[in-house]
User: Fold these one by one.
Assistant:
Number 1:
Amino acid sequence: MNGVAKISASLVAAAAALALGCSHSLPRAPASAPAATAHAQIGAWGLDLTARDAAVRPGDDFYRYADGLWIDAHQIPPDRTRWGSFDELDERSQQQVRGIVEALPAQAPDGSNAQKVGDYYRAYLDTAAIERAGLAPAQAGLDAIAAAQTHKDLTRLMGRPDLGLGLPVRIAITTDQKDPDHYVVSISQSGLGMPDRDYYLKDDAVYAALRVQYAAHVARLLTLAGERDGAADAQSILDIETRIARLHWPAARRRERDLTYNPRTRVELEQLAPGFIWEVLLAAEGVDAQPRFVVRELDAVQGLAQLFLQVPVGRWRAYFKYHYLVSVAEVLPSAFYDERFDFYGRTLNGQPQQRERWKRAVGALDVDLGEVVGELYVQRYFPPASKQQVLALVENLRAAYAQRIEQLAWMTPATRKVALEKLAAFHPKIGYPDTWRDYSALSIVTGDAFGNLVRARIFEWRRQVMRLGGPTDRGEWGMTPQTINAYYNPTFNEVVFPAAILQPPFFDPQADAAVNYGGIGAVIGHEMGHGFDDQGAKSDARGVLHTWWAQADTDAFRTRVDRLVAQYDGYVVLPGLKINGRLTLGENIGDLGGLSVAYDAYHRSLKGAPAPQLDGLSGDQRFFLSFAQIWRALNRDEQLRTQVVSNPHSPPKFRVNGVVRNVDPWYAAFNVQPGEQLYLPQEERVRIW
């Protein structure tokens, strides 16, 4: 939903007393919960009135009108690439997780979750031990790469989970989109060190400069690892990746779910890329017994398999060595991580400083032991009452969505019936999973940061492979509770909201209803809207990927979304850089539908009573201002470029201005008139759901 790294991912005095074991249900009563306040946490009723720039007309730049003084008063912290509502909550979540982890007993029972979390965290922070170890922990992996003499040897390395390569094709275990009750092995394009194919193929000066800087970075990293001619190897790697980029599908095409579902038997897989050593790769991954696979980017995977055989083994060894070192740099001596950060943080995304080591440790925990930490997090920070209030809000949104679908003039009755069935089947997951993940098979060793990372990789891959052949786990979560984000899963037809996002400015039990509906209501509506965007709408109520629309509905829908694409294609983010309306279409549909549905749900919540005036603002004005304030953010130019090229989310400013100008009640709420910059005539406003 957000696109901010999570992944994602205050002191907890009671944490040390908790007996952390294996997978089990959360206790009904939280260990402690924040005390209720007499009024909202932001202002008297939930909105930051000091953020507005009254010198700007809402109809000229609503984003600036709602957030301008906040933007002027803030700066991006040096260890961040952007700063806004999501980032502020992420910072708070990290501080809270730090408190939880550092309160755990230093001498926990061996094999307990408390021991694993504590030892993982402490080992990650023990930079003195990491420096003393040098490159030795990675030597076995480096030796295996250096010993490869044939393409068969290389293929075996590609499939080793401890090396974390998965290059230039990647194997994954995913839910089968046409059979959501089962898992399937997925094969997709991979192999690039920079964010997207455009970084290798575009002629613009900025990309040409980045290619030079990337090669210099690769050379420095390889030289650190003892490579004699790092510069020559770096040029070879850049050449290989450029050839890979030419084969890759553009990001917008990769969104097309029907195009990326290409089932193949084992025999058909061999026929797709004759000569490629599929049996070795699949055996190394532990999936060679599977009878069926889904190839995503069909001709790209075919071309990558052929390219793999064409490039000499020696050149692949250097390529594998670089990517392996980058993947483990965080637990190698600081020179390796510093070099990785210099390119991926500072050069690519404009981040001046590294994040503190403890923050990186919290992020690593979120990846490798996230649900152990998440269980403690919700016990401390997510009271059951919040969950119930959000669930009630979800049902109000569901009712508003149903009413809108029933009134759609462009939808035929047969398609409307299935759409309503899908809406009724939406499953909301709020806060945290009902059952926590079992980490008993994962060994975490005191003082072994490198080994802990590698063992976590192996543990997770084995966990994935073991699921093949069994039913899908519909209770599983794709985010940890401490993540500031949300998502829609089309194969399970579910909307998922981690506990950490359910706090101000998105949600506050004490806030004005208009604020909550403009905040978390619009976010929930956004995620529900993904079930009816250009890709989510390709699945039915059970999550099965198939065509359930009448052709007339498909044509009417396409006409509307194409107009939205055209709008966003015209938005300039930086000089010479515009939004890709096709790449961002799903998120833009989600934003537009989410805000529209949340507005209706807000008025349903009033039950016919007039909304009160608060500080001179009507209910509708508070609703739209709340929506604008959840998206307020400062972004570094480098980060914006990366986002626009490779990310399906529009930058924050356009998640506000690009949406409200299509919503009729916004015009009335702020008396927006012809001639103002955001004004669109009625016939040009896009209305989809």
Number 2:
Amino acid sequence: MTKRRSSHWYGKLDKDGFIHRSWMKNQGWPDHVFDGRPIIGICNTWSELNPCNHGLRDLAEAVKRGVWEMGAFPVEFPVSSLGETQMKPTAMLFRNLLAMDVEEAIRAHGIDGVVLLGGCDKTTPGQLLGAASVDIPAIVVSSGPMLNGKYRGQDIGSGTDVWKFSEEVRAGKMTLKEFMAAESGMSRSAGVCMTMGTASTMSSLVEALGMCLPTNGALPAVDARRKALAHMTGRRIVEMVEEDLKPSDVLTKAAFENAILANAAVGGSTNAVVHLLALAGRVGVDLTLDDFEIGSEIPLLVNCMPSGQYLMEDFCYAGGIPAVLNELSDHLRKSQTVMGADISAYAEGAEVFSRDVIYAFDEPLKPAAGLRVLKGNLAPDGAIVKPSAATDALLEHEGPAFVFENIEDLKANIDRDDLPVTPETILVLKGCGPKGYPGMAEVGNMPIPAKLIKEGVRDMIRVSDARMSGTAYGTVILHVAPEAQAGGTLALVKTGDRIRVSASNGVLELLVDDAELAMRRAAWQPDPPRYSRGYAKMYVDHVTQANTGADLDFLVGKDTRIPDRESH
């Protein structure tokens, strides 16, 4: 029998082996589970403070059934859980902390492979970052989306319709009572946002990366088939241990390119950019912001909010990610997957059951809809925009800036009746990047000024170093790098400056001459640090910029530590 990683903990007939086995036996495990069979960790982000993931307890039990069925020994362990809707200042501040938690938990314990149970926006990428850094066999099971929201006989989507309803209240077209009545119908079951927000985007891209079994991306959280998927994942991870199939075998440049293509086709979240860049950095793949341009000519195929009409439940029934990969088959790169087969196997035999939801590649919902990378003196290291959720006419625009120096400035002034803005104005928000907020909060989709909302305006260009929710929409330019707090040109913009945007040419330009910008830079000072201790201080001191994934600088790259350290 091949000597396993777990044998360093449980296979020794000495004091160390005695201690490891004996303490585990206080849970009632018999001798034979320590007979050299694979030990499979189940890394669970279940939490009652993370409602998106509260169905993961049941999925963990299903995974265990599959592991036991294959003759291996499953052991469940907790890590921190990041509830996007519940955490302040932003769950993104803690993605890298979760990644550290996962990495060190795997490294410190005697497991041979790991199943990652996550779902809510930052749990999936955080777990992947941690597992990839240790590089033992790993596979993902996502929590799955909620059932469709319901309100007055209509389907409503989490996030997307919240923003719309909120703006209608501000415009006086929806009463507060009507707004509050939608609250209970929005979230009707366990699971993540049922729009193509960041959570469902990441579960879909995990499938396109080949890091989970097929259908993981869209099966509803409460669908019995997700438990069956978890069961089969428990079986597969044991086989992966036998095959020594690791994340580094799957997460190749080709796999990341497939994820970029899939993100364009599904109208996925802009947040996928920072997560894929960070993950590539962990496994040593040379992925840059410019690589996302390969998705710019891919059409939008999935008619899901916020880029379309339907919700994840409908997407599942229409064929899900396998059907999308089938539509993309002529463009996919060859890449290994956790199934031990090429990604093309995920699309094999896949059908589309509703062309209202999943369009054909040759007859798309929207052409050339992938994320666009913008550069220029306002974003020397890049910024991004999501054309599928934007107003076409605004993607080529020049106008005067109105600047909010920070989020507090925005909140205090956005509803002023005398705010000097028109629909042609470009709203600029500073101080919300990785270091500035800190954590790069989802505030980039700034509210439309109240005076314009009342005039019927529902979109205008907004530019910031922040992120936006994957459920949000609008002509929103995000992730400007370098950020304002790091001394990027964004910090120098003044109200009245003209800005030029050309998505087709990849341009984001501040129309101020170099001499004036040099004078402004000489007078600029960063804001004083908000934190003086703890993880938040460590984060601000070491976080990288958005264009490289907003990881911590000392976590980038492969780990050279020996994972099987002697104990006691």
Number 3:
Amino acid sequence: MTYRVGIDIGGTFTDFALLKDDAVLLEKSLSTPADRSLAVMEGLEKLARREGLELGDFLARVEAVIHGTTIADNTLIEMNGAVTGLLTTEGFRDEIELRRGFKEDIWDVRLEPPPAIAPRRRRLTVPERVLHDGRVYRELDEEAARKAIRRLAKQGVESVAISLVFSFVNPVHEERLAELVAEEMPGAEISVSYQVLPRAPEFERTSTTVVNAYVAPRVTSYLERLTRRLADAGYRRELLVMQSSGGVMTRDYLRGSPIRILASGPAGGVVGGAQIGVAKSAPDLLCVDMGGTSYDVSVVIDGSAPAEPGWNWHHRYLVAVPMVNVETLGAGGGSICYTKSGVLHVGPESAGADPGPVCYGHGGERPTVTDAILVLGFLSEDSEFAGGSFSLTRDGVDAAFDKYIAGPMGCSIEEAAFDSWRVVNANMSQAVRRTTAGKGIDPRSLTMLAYGGNGPVFAAIQAQELGIDRVWVPKASPTFSALGALAAQPSIDEERSYIVPAAQAQVQRLRELWQELDERAEGYFVAGGFARDDMTARYELNLRYPGQNWSLTVEVAEVKGARDLSFVSEATRDVMIDRFHDAHEAEYGHRREGEEPEITGVRLATSAGIPKPAFAAGFTAERREAVAAKTRSANLGAGFEETKIFRGPDLEPGHVVASPAIIEETFTTIVVYPGWQAVLDDAGDYLLSRTGEQAE
């Protein structure tokens, strides 16, 4: 018996999905903010005990540990990264602070810019210059560079970002500058732009490199600590880490650019969502993930959620690595409810795992969303919580609502809890509207996929507000992002700059660049235990019309197995020009047929096939009404009334649950609001639909 383990670390819980042949087992453990690797090891021990094995014996049978984490995101949210300095070309000191004229809220005249990761006193320049064609116009002044580095050292800089003009064409000065930093500041983290993002434009490359430098020490130390703990416990394979692009890769590959794991936790859920949507004949999905700390929204169209490589503003900073588009809101079960100037607010501050909501009984004093839904009867002190790992308590909950909300607002405890439920629900629905409107998508055309520990609690009522008629809740929804990590392919997506009019591109140069990327990818895949025959390489070109800032990526060829660049020929260029015109018209609604586009770079997306969890579908089981286990008083939006309570583990395919009802699964709660019903399909997944609609 062999295993594969998917892990997703959240702010409150750390989730696990164990793939055991075709079966999937779920597990959770409370996150440990002081050292998140401890929660990982605790969860692995739980899985080992469930399999009747010692941890060492269990890990010896694990073929892959695939890990998604929000540690880079948390670093940016909490602004507790490394003391960061920037070395750049003379004359470009302030480019990073000038930004792109982008403002998150154009109507807020008081909106301040984000805190400078590298303030001006820690942004220093060095005399040097490389031209756009790679020729060295001015040699690097090493003495001046050493003086600048020593100034950074005196300021206590822990991590240095290096971004020089046109280094993506010729990195000779960046390479030498990195050597000088290593000599003058031994032990400092070094982020070099030609490794992090070897392409134009200048601001995007510099911003990405600075953010990489800021998060690198925390990410690197965490992954090294986890790798060491796994090895000490008996794990003998490479740790695979989820990337923001939706693929996974080895720890060694991410060593120079840990920025690639930003938003890697939510990306796992989107990858799994795309695959389950295709299986359920619902390829157009609105994926909503509500955990203990955050609420993540993403859109899957036609079974795909492609990584966007350029304009990714994440936590108010431009990060231009390939990234699945996920909008994150500070709204989760641990989000704190409070009043300010007579107005009720929920989040973004969270009680997290320590101390957690008041009802956890771990010392929390301020009311949270979880406390609110306990008061409303969605949850109960009598029910198992988090797989039975602990029980909820009402002790202190009423007093917390009275002190912080009911008292100041002059309402009852129940009204305070209900209004908190309404506010957090409105916040999440508004986040969905922003995400879909920004893409020109009508949410009514989508099927909602709800997951996370709290996603199914709010799913149907949100869908109703958004005009969505169908909601899928996977049986694995409480740890769906961890399961999605198991569904992700090992992948490397990189590019090299080559700026030239398309008709003048040198075939030999294209081959050289693609071969360089291919050999680099193959080295990491082989080190990770993947054979060349397992690899699929997708060769692409970035093109744009003259005068445009942004490029479109056009696929040239896809090759499985052995490297084969025979497709690169003079004819390739003409075909690519035609494809670019078509792609531009599809993206922007027009084409400039008479203009010759220019190539800005070559791109190679490489992946390998691995065993994945199977997502099934179908409604062949006989429909029959489910029998409730008990009832309790709950307010599902229309006042308190006796509500049927069903045990999820007792339900089988074909069972129908009519509203109003609450389904208590092992790690989550599914609320069937008035006007809705739930049906279990052949795979045991829940389809929530408006009453009277036929489930297909």
